[in-house]
Specification:
Layout: H1 2-20, H2 29-50, H3 52-56, H4 66-83, H5 87-114, H6 118-139
Length: 140
């Protein structure tokens, strides 16, 4: 849910930037949605490096290379998030993010089952929302 709140806040910031720039920046609705996605994926990607233990706790302990998986997914979030900004790479980055969201879904299931609370369970329902945001603003 924090990711969704971040998307909405950055989308609103994009609306503000578009308005104060007279439409010179973030002209279209898609531009604002892409801006929000970029900001959130880059920030979340950085968190994989800043607090690796928190995100590694979402990966089952018996899986090998947990640290490497954490860093790899964080780097992918940062790189793909930035690539969304460029029209030439936007489609490929969006497909990459959709695949990444699918790939990390088992970690969300694991954490919802091992530590069932409202936040962890809600992550399961918001993942399709994030995927829809990527599709709506980047691929349709």
């Amino acid at each position: 849910m924090a990711f969704l709140i971040g998307l909405i806040v950055f989308f609103l910031i994009g609306l503000f930037i578009g308005a104060v720039s007279g439409g010179a920046w973030l002209l279209t609705l898609a531009d604002k949605g892409v801006f929000a996605l970029t900001m959130m994926f880059v920030l979340v990607g950085i968190s994989h490096f800043a607090k690796p233990e928190k995100l590694e706790a979402m990966i089952p302990a018996h899986w090998p290379y947990r640290r490497a998986m954490n860093y790899l997914s964080g780097a992918a979030e940062i790189i793909l998030g930035i690539l969304l900004l460029f029209p030439a790479t936007r489609m490929w980055a969006a497909y990459g993010l959709l695949l990444l969201l699918i790939a990390v879904f088992p970690a969300n299931i694991f954490v919802a089952r091992s530590k069932p609370n409202l936040y962890n369970i809600s992550r399961l329902f918001f993942q399709p929302v994030y995927m829809a945001w990527v599709w709506f603003f980047c691929l349709r």
